[in-house]
């Protein structure tokens, strides 16, 4: 399932117009750009798990930013937490092998 479809399901959007789809795609692209820039991660072709969740949270935060400020703030807080978790996991898995001088 495409991220746009997941977004529509998550936020109960049933409108299927080109303008709405374009706006949602822009928010998803913006979310991916933010994650790459601030969490130092690579977005896979079909994101899943925490990456997908973070993208949907960011896009939802931006979607509700002008219509439901309280919901937008809650989504932003959740996104910030998800982004921190992704950043920590990328730092944890980023390591360099050290040659200890012993051979097997």
* Tally of DSSP β-strands: 0
Low-confidence stretches: none
Percentage of residues in strands: under 5%
Which word captures the global form?
globular
The chain-level mean pLDDT equals: 86
Report the order of strands and helices.
Answer: HHHH
The biggest beta sheet is recorded as: none
Query: How large is the radius of gyration?
Result: 17 Å
End-to-end distance: 47 Å
Helix-residue proportion: 55-70%
General description of the model:
With 104 residues, the chain is mostly helical. Helix content is 67%, strand content 0%. It contains 4 helices and no strands. Helix 1 (3-10) crosses helix 3 and helix 2 crosses helix 3 (49-63). The radius of gyration is 17 Å and the shape is globular.
Keywords summarizing the entry:
mainly alpha; 104 residues; single chain; globular
Compact summary:
The protein is an all-alpha fold and 104 residues long. It has helices at 3-10, 18-39, 49-63, 69-93.
Secondary-structure blueprint:
Blueprint: H1 3-10, H2 18-39, H3 49-63, H4 69-93
Helix pairs in contact: 1-3, 2-3, 3-4
